[in-house]
Each structure stands twice: as structure tokens, then as C-alpha cells.
Queue: 3 jobs
Job 1
Amino acid sequence: MRPSTVAVRAGCNRSQFGEHAEGLFLTSSFVFSSAAEAAARFAGEAEGFVYSRFGNPTVAIFEERLAALEGGERAIATASGMAAVLAVAMTFLRAGDRVVAGQELFGATIQLFSNVLARFGVETVFADPTDLPTFEAVLERTRPRLVFIETPTNPLTGIVDLTAVAERTRAIEALLVVDNCFATPVLQQPLKLGADLVIHSATKYLDGQGRVLGGAVVGAAALLEEVYRFLRVAGPSLSPFNAWVLLKGLETLPVRMAAHCQHAERVASFLAAHPRVVQVRYPGLPSHPHHARAHQQMRGFGGIIAFEVAGGRTAAWQVIDSVRLFSITANLGDAKSTITHPATTTHGRLSPEVRAAMGVGEGLIRLSIGLEDPDDLCDDLAAALACLAR
Ligand SMILES: *Cc1c(COP(=O)(O)O)cnc(C)c1O
């Protein structure tokens, strides 16, 4: 079936009473008909649910639907996106292992690898995966167990050639993990391009309306069985209620992503033509350094735009404080458009030198384009940018 159908229908064969909307099973545990059945289910010899930390019907529908959308054999839902990153790390890494990670990642992912996992003897080397020769050299030199990347990158929307990185990763027998949060399976399916695992912050586009936290790991059944064993004992599990909300989100994901892309293209073109804007980073613009790669790899260019104004932090903050429609929040992937200053929020804990090397300047602003009329968003930005002239 095609993606729009999968988004609405996958997993629905679990209906019990002919309910049309997916059933919400708010129960911590399940009852067995006999001691023998309890024993068989605990041993994994009989099908059926036991305890919602490691299995719940509503969560299972969400897992099936997301796995189908990503083209993976199985998905395991987690309490948040960070719980998904942690689950992958705790499942596949041990003391003495090395990780090579993209340098432009979600802030908490950088903190998790460089501060938390470092205490358990896992060393992480950060490198730029959009620069293939350099990234390949780092892989050769460090021989990591796991490679972790995001594409488009955060906040500059750099595009990583997933097929090429997957090839290099396979050559050194490491696992390639892709955080597919910005693109979603509607715009790109990393597993089909050679990634071993996809992780999601379902909190963003998969929900799409800023209501709940959630996450997931998706991939081949053999790898996911190991993730499941970690989740079963460690417990960063998704709540059935959140799974139910996320199922409603998935139903509209394809239509929402089409609108996010269309609106963002309109706003990016507006910004690119504005005299007060020094630079716009949106993969859909021909001026974007990885435009051709994005065109080849993605079915749309996404809803995230980064742009730079002259005048550094003062000017950037002035624009942020002058918009009326955009919400000032670091969240993204919402129906409501958001605006943020990466250098002092999401990427504020990095040293100024690291930020400068990445290209995250003090004048950089990141937008997540929502579902409002794009002309209203352009009007709002025009008024805010006009404040700079004075
Ligand atoms: C938000 C986000 C995360 C973390 O997800 P939570 O649900 O907030 O834990 C991970 N990766 C990316 C790219 C994100 O935007």
C-alpha cells in the first residue's frame, strides 16, 4: 500500500469490537486464564500481552503503523525521542566502544553521548557527515561500533548522503543509526537507503500538534528484538494514551508534511529575496549547498528553515521579539510555526568555537514552518525584519 493509506490503516487489524477508532487500552497489566497460560506468556511461548511496560495493544498498533511507514520489520515505541536514542545506545554499546556522530545533532543527543555515555566508557567523536571524505577518514581512524546521524541537520539543514554513509558504515561493520525526526518517513526512508536503525522523536511531526512526548526505534526484527529486551527491563516505555494520540497524528502525517513543505518553500523564497537577510538555509532553495542531494534523496524539502540576519545576537533577538504569529519555542514539527535562536538555546551549551566551526552564528534564526497561511507568516516576518531598519 502507498504511504497515505499505510498512515491511516496499518495496524487496524487489531480491532476487537469493531471499533472504528483505535482502541485505547489504559491498563498496566493483563489477566491470564490459568497459571499455565501465565507461565507460557512470561516465557514468550504464547502470544498475548503481559504488562504494559513491554507490550500494550494501543502501543502495538502505533509500532506496527510506524514500522510500515518506515519500511522496517519492527518498531519499538519509547517514552520520548531521547529514550529512543538511549535505548539504542544501551542495547548496542559497551565500555570501550566508540561512536562517530554527526556534529550537528539535537542538543540533548550531543549531551547524552559526550557526557552520560562517556561515564560508561563509550567515547564519541563528532564529525561532519555532509563532508564525505573527512567523515570516511574519521570512520577509518576511529573504527566505531555505531554511527549516529541526522539529516537534514539541526539547525543548518545540511543533507547527508545516506546511501554513501551507509556503504562506508557497512564496510567497517558498524551500525548506522539515523534520527529521521526532521524528514519523517513521508519525505525519506533511511532503512531503504541502507541505514540499520531509524530513531524518532514522535513528539515532533509524528504527533504534529504539540500534545505528547514519544519516540521509537525502527529496523530489522533481529536488531529490534535486542532493543525490546532492553526496554522490557529498563522501562522507558511509551504510555498507551500517548500512543493513541500519536496514532491520530500519523493518520494526517502525509497531508501535513505536504503542507509543511509547501509553506516552507514559500517562506524560504520570501526570506531569500529580503534585503535584511544575509543567508537562507532551506534544502529546497537552489542556493542551498546540498540542494541536488536533497532533491535526489527526499520527496520534499521539509518544514525547517535557518536564516541569518546581519547584526549578530542583537538583531536576531530583535526579530524574534518582534514576530507576533511565530511562537518563541525550541519545539518544532508543530501545526503552529515556531522561531528560535540556536546559539543561545538548543546549541547554547556548545562552546562559541564549536558553534562557529559548525556555522551556527549569533545572527542565525531557526524557523519551523507550521500550517498557518504562509502569506501571513511572510507578512509577520516582513514586519519583524522592518524593525531592524530603524
Ligand atoms: C526533539 C528531538 C529529539 C528528542 O526528542 P524528545 O521527544 O524531545 O525526547 C531528538 N532528535 C531530534 C532531531 C529532535 O528534534
Note: The domain at 253-389 is CATH 3.90.1150.10 (Aspartate Aminotransferase, domain 1).
Job 2
Amino acid sequence: MSLSDELFGRGKKVMPGGVNSPVRAFGSVERNPLFIEKASGSKIYDADGNEYIDFVNSWGPLILGHCNQDIVESVKHTIINGFSFGLSTEREVLIAELICEIVPNVEMIRMVNSGTEAVMSALRLARGFTGRDKVIKFEGCYHGHCDSMLVKAGSGALTSGEPDSAGIIKATAKYTLIAEYNNLESVEKLFKENKDEIACVIVEPVAANMGVIPPKEGFLEGLRKLCDENKALLIFDEVITGFRIALGGAQEYFGVSADIVTFGKIIGGGMPVGAYGGKREIMERISPVGNVYQAGTLSGNPIAMAAGYKQLTMLRDNKDILSTINMNAEYIANEMRCIIEKYNVSAQVNQVGSLISVFFAEEEVDSYKTAVKSDKKVFSRFFNSMLDNGIYIAPSQFEAMFISFAHEGGDFKKFIEVFEKSISELR
Ligand SMILES: *Cc1c(COP(=O)(O)O)cnc(C)c1O
């Protein structure tokens, strides 16, 4: 028995499913999960010493790869002066100034400890600001695990086949209205049926939790217009896209403005951080200035801020980082398409910036409905073959691959070789 298997066996006795987050259990790819010992650059090493090229990067935060030396140094330097004070520090001002400088329409920001917390707080703020109760979300989009967002959710909820969680008060779910991603009419209809009741529309500007699905031309612009016409706020959940598809995120990439933006993942450089920001007029409704209450014992934690600030500074100061990883992603996505064509396998490759998904589906994937037609059994065979050959991608059909700045030529060469082998074996 491998050490990973043994740890999983012990873990299962004391942790539900042996894990602290569902997708780590590898249930949908029918094998025991990995237990990781350490990582460096583009590689992770499991408890048994196996090496994998990591195309997940902790689900996105590590855009510079594992153990970036500058970030490690910054954390080390900070940690010796205290773990947490429950009082403000210069670093919190610095990271807030930096984010307001690089993200359009963000004049103020509040740090929290996860993407879930950022979304939960942003929704409260939108409701407090507008005095309205209802929110529109999209089928297959994932916004963390707060009650109102676990309705038709993506990511692990979708992977497990249960996009609606048990334990959500029916009255709560009633205030979450579900529209179809890339379908403006479905949004317009909800606005008509719930006139003057909608506080906000929340969207992943690039859907990345039902696999990667780019917004169709005009979709985000249309949401902006509908929100303006109905005096509702538009929330871009940029927990994945922020600081990734462009330095200023999806607002910069697509040229569409949001009222509130939520962040997570990259913003913490691998530490547990989330944030939400927007125009002063909206953000000053938050306590202690306004009456929308939101607080956090460890929010703005000095070590987390040190890691996040260093990573964001590096992305700002070296514009080549994002352009390089975007180019590399485009290159391997094209290689993947050629291989799929060569072996005549039913599969689609979607790519936006450094995010890629391969769907084992016959038709183009541009919506939740087309995404869920993908063949999960085929994905499972594909995943297992990739992993057995040293390539770690997300253990689910409905997640993204994340390219980092630590991935180099040799990593891509090996990825493409193993991809070809794995695809050829599917026939
Ligand atoms: C990961 C994710 C979240 C939740 O973030 P956590 O830090 O896991 O709570 C929210 N929204 C999106 C778009 C995400 O990808």
C-alpha cells in the first residue's frame, strides 16, 4: 500500500471523506487521492515521492508556481515579527493602495479570509446598498459555499452531481434566482418578473467552475445594461479571473465595468485571503463607516498580506508574466486541439488567458447545458492516464487547468506528449 493510500485510510476515519474540501477526494475519477509532501516551481511531490507537473496550482492562487523565492522571503521576513495583531498594519494599506491602483472601478477594498467570505459579504453589501433582497446567479457558476450561492452551483457541487446542497433554508434559496450563462434573455425575464426586487447580478465573467466557458460577445455588456436599467448592482466574481486574465481582471480584459468585484486565490499568493471592492459610494456602506456589518479576527493577517502583496507587486512590475502565461496557454490549447483531431476523439478545448478546459463532448461547450453533456467516464480514464504519467490536472471534468509562470518549455513538452498518449488510448 502506498503512503498516500495509508494516509487516506487514516484520514477517512477522522475527516469526512478523508479530506477538508470535497474535490480533493478524487471521487469522480475513481481513485484514491494524492497526499502531498512538498512542492517547488511547477512540480508537486506526493507522500510516496512521486513527482507530478502541477497544472492546478492550488486551484489558481499560485500563478508564479510553488515556493516562489521572493514570496517565501517576504513571508519569512514578516513571520518573525508576529503572526497576528488584531490591529492594523502598514501592509494592509499598501495592498489596498496597490489593488485600487490596478483594478478598474475599485476605489476601496476590504480584505477577508476566503473567496466564499468575499462573495457572502459582497451580496450583503449589494442588498444593504439597494435595499432589495433578491439576487440573480447563473446555473453552473460557483461562488463559494455560502447558503444563498449553493443553488445550481458549479465546482465540487457539480462534480458530486449535487448542484443544490442539503441544509439550505428554502426561504433563503427562494431569494436566489437562476439564469442561464451566456443567455441574456433568461436574465431579462427574471428582471421583468421581479421588478424592483433585484439587488444584484453575480457572475463569473469567465465561467471557470463548470469547466472554462468564455462569455459570448455582448453577454457581459448586456448584463451591465440590464443592471443599469433596473438599478441593480453588477458583481463580478473574479476569484479566478482577477489578476490573471489581465492585471485588472475581467473588467480590463473585456472592457466592462462592475459595481462590486470579489477576489480570492491569487490575491493571497497561496495564503487564505479574499477581498471585495468597488466604488467609494458603495464601499462606505460597510461598517464601521456604514451600517452593513462585516468583520474578521484574522482579516488582513500580516503573513497573508505579505504573500499577497509580493505576488501582486511582481505581476504589476513585470508585465511579461501574464502575457507569457497567456501565450503558453494558447499554444498548448492549440496543440491539444490538433491531437484531438488527429485521433478523432469527441472533445472540445476552451481557453481564456491562462485557463484551459478539455470537455469530452461532441458539441462546442458554451453553456451549462452543453458542459454537462460531457462524458465523465471518458474524463476519468483520461485523468488517470495523465496522472499515471506524471501530469496532475484537476480531478474533475468541470474544473480549469491553470498555467503558471513556473511552467517551462520542458513541462509543456511533457504535457503534450502525455496528452497525446492519453488521448490515443481513449479510442
Ligand atoms: C474558488 C472560488 C470561490 C470560493 O473561494 P474559496 O476561497 O474557496 O472560499 C468563489 N468564487 C469563485 C469564482 C471561485 O472560483
Note: The radius of gyration is 21 Å.
Job 3
Amino acid sequence: MKSAHLCLWLLVLSTVTELVSAFDPFSTAWSSIISNFFYKGCEDKLVAFNSSGLEDSLQTKLFGQHIASKIILKTVSGFMNNDNPKKPLVLSLHGSSGTGKNLVSSLIAENLYKEGMNSDFVHIFMSDIHFPHVSQVDTYKTQLQQWIKGNVSSCAQSMFIFDEMDKMHPGLIDSIRPYLEHYDKLDGISYRKAIFIFLSNAEGSSLTETALKFRNAGRKREEMELKDVEKLLLLSAFNNDNSGLWHTSLIEKNLVDFFVPFLPLEYSHVIECTMAAMKAQGLQLDIYIADKLATDMVYFPESEPVFSKQGCKTIGSRLHFYMEDV
Ligand SMILES: *[C@@H]1O[C@H](CO)[C@@H](O)[C@H](O)[C@H]1NC(C)=O
Ligand SMILES: *[C@@H]1O[C@H](CO)[C@@H](O)[C@H](O)[C@H]1NC(C)=O
């Protein structure tokens, strides 16, 4: 009799435990209910997407990147105009620093969110800052997954930018892979409206080589097509060096929609960037000053110094120095 009682109690107890654990505040079902209840989502913080707006930004702010510009406009517009995308938009931007990768990320953000890059829905991760210690990779993995999950459940149209992807621990990349795939829903959350952007400097030098070869063959830079550099971006992924490791798994599964090349910039592009910076800062356009600034930049390779070493980086701040100089 007593043991029957005990059995019953044990049964009740285990049922209660099961019920409680089903409503564990950390379980996904529960947290998505909470987030739906507390967050109104981000609908009222989004810009009505207008592809001519993006086209306009690309034309007036991004210079010397005819391949990147075309891919970005097509893929972002296609994605935004699709009410039911099958997977999140995943773009991998490659090129040396100063060639426009960050600029493109902010142009996309400005065309999506009212507050642009300052929006609460844009998340930037830098390996040196957010994931500095290799020994803590496991902690970072869990944290990153929770961040992505938490942010996408409060705003489906969240944007995640991973800067210096080439320095990112491959384990971390693996941890975000499930979110990039063609799942309808993962634990009750759909990631298909999110945007993931990977930035990498690692392939800069091979892009420079290709651009130089084109130049030396007497061909116009604008004749260069995606297919001329795409293989190079894909191949470098399979190199044994650390920089390649990360995107191997992304390529194998075809999770990246596009590998977007950013070519090294020449003197004429530095001039364009400078004029645009003058305009943005409300200064009088002055080609004499632009030429002075552009001429003072460092160009490479040594044998044939045609590409700006810093691209268009730092031009905004350099400008003040040259303006005072007049
Ligand atoms: C889209 O953007 C273009 C260029 O910025 C602008 O002229 C046009 O009025 C916009 N259209 C809509 C529907 O907002
Ligand atoms: C969203 O991501 C940020 C990091 O950018 C993180 O600090 C925050 O906790 C995340 N929010 C949620 C709800 O997970």
C-alpha cells in the first residue's frame, strides 16, 4: 500500500518536473513566446525598401567597384522584394582595407533601417574585440548562438556583420552555420529574413594581382567580370592557411549566396572618394585639393605604383588637413 503511494507520488513528481522543464525560461519555445509578447518587432523601424534608392547610394558613394556594385544591387533588391525568401541573405565581401566593404555594409543598412548602422538591428562582430581568446571559443559559440537567436526572434530582419572574418576561429563559423541554411524554422524561429555579411581582407593581394594582370594586358578595369575573380576567391578558400579554413565549410554547403570582390582602388577613384567626402561634409568642391590629397596617398606595388595602399580609407579625416593647408 505504502509503496503504491510512493509510486504514485513519484509519477506525479516526474510529470511536474517534465512540465516545468517544458516551460523552462531558457527553452526556445518559451523565450520566443516572451519575445513576441514584449517586443513589438521592428516593423516600424524599417525603411520601405526602394531599389532605386540603393542604386543611387551605390552610384554616388561607392567608387571603382563595378562588379561588387552590380551584385549587391541585384541580390539585395531580389532578397528584399521577395516576401518569402528560402534562406537568409549571406554575402561574403572580399578585398583590401579601404576598398568599400564597410561602406557597402552601411549602405545596405541605410536602405533597410531608419537609423542605418546605428539601428538596434545591426550587429557587428569583430574577432579581436568580441572573441579574443581562443581558449574561450566554446563560451563564445554559445553566446553568439544566443545573440543571433535572441535578436532574430525580436526582429526577423536583423543584420549581422562579421568583420575580419579571416581572423575568426573556424569553430565559431561552424556554430552559426545552422542559421544560414535552408531551414523553414529552427526551434520555432525563422531566420530567412535575416542578413549575414562577412568581411575579409585576406584575398586582397590575389585580387590586386588579377587587377594588375588586366591592366598590363591593356584591358580596361571595367571589362573585368565576376567570373575572372570568382574562381580565385573560391580557390583561396581551400588554401591551407588559416584565412581559408573558415569559408571552406560555408562553400561546401553553398551557404554563401555571393562572394563579392572589391578591387584595389586607383588614383582616379581616390579623387572620386575625395570629392564625395567634400560634398558629404558640405565643403566647396575643389579638384585642386582632391588632386593634392590623392597624390600624397601611398601607391603600390613598388614596381608599378597604381593602387592606393589604403584605398579610400581615412580620406574623410585627411580632408581637414588639406583644407586648412589652402
Ligand atoms: C525611390 O528612390 C528614388 C531615388 O532615391 C526616389 O526618387 C523615389 O521617389 C523613391 N521611390 C519611392 C516609392 O519611395
Ligand atoms: C543581440 O545582440 C547583441 C550583440 O550585438 C547582444 O548584446 C544582445 O544581448 C542580443 N540580444 C538578444 C535579445 O539576444
Note: Confidence is low (pLDDT under 50) at residues 15-22.
